[in-house]
Write a structure and sequence with these properties.
The chain is an alpha+beta fold. Helices cover 28% and strands 18% of the residues. A 6-stranded antiparallel sheet has the order 1-6-2-3-4-5, with helices on one face.
Length: 179
């Protein structure tokens, strides 16, 4: 059974409980979030980290997304959807942007993002990993995930963007420490 879809051919209304949505924003950049729905909703919502302190939870637009129906049990999918709602409600639309690892990011009882000297923020991709990790579904092996040659250049570019969009000097220094 196919599990990867193009939204133009298979609309988000087909998402049962959760899916991972991926959008090509330009030739070198992708954006990712989690589609999640309550049982009584006609369309799922997309939880994503759009930028520094810009957590969003809204109906996705009509852009051409790829979406992936993960191979997990319906019960686990309900847990992921509930965690999405909890993280949205607990963080007042604010999760900082940085390159911290996605494990153990959220308080298990409240869903609040746990900022610390070694936990500065997330990217859109690590938010997705962190949500799944928070319900005990680790999608990748963090210790063996390969570093790509272009990662450093991309991270330095993101820091320039953070600086130009008014992130605090303290946050910039912390993010620089994660490059």
């Amino acid at each position: 059974m196919e599990r990867i879809y193009i939204s133009a051919e298979c609309p988000f209304t087909k998402v049962k409980t959760i899916a991972v949505a991926i959008l090509k924003t330009d030739e070198k950049q992708r954006h990712i979030g989690i589609l999640h729905r309550k049982a009584d909703a006609s369309r799922p919502l997309l939880l994503d980290l759009a930028w520094h302190h810009r957590l969003r939870n809204k109906e996705p637009d009509d852009a051409d997304y790829l979406w992936v129906d993960p191979v997990i049990s319906p019960r686990r999918a309900l847990q992921v959807a509930a965690k999405c709602r909890q993280v949205w409600n607990a963080n007042d639309r604010r999760i900082p942007y940085s390159f911290s690892p996605p494990n153990d990011c959220f308080d298990s009882a409240t869903g609040i993002f746990l900022v610390s000297p070694d936990r500065v923020g997330l990217t859109c991709a690590t938010l997705v990993l962190a949500i799944f990790d928070a319900v005990g579904l680790r999608l990748i092996d963090y210790d063996t995930w390969p570093k790509r040659p272009d990662d450093r250049e991309w991270q330095l570019n993101m820091i320039k963007l953070l600086r130009s969009h008014g992130a605090s000097d303290a946050h910039i220094r912390a993010v620089e420490g994660e490059v």
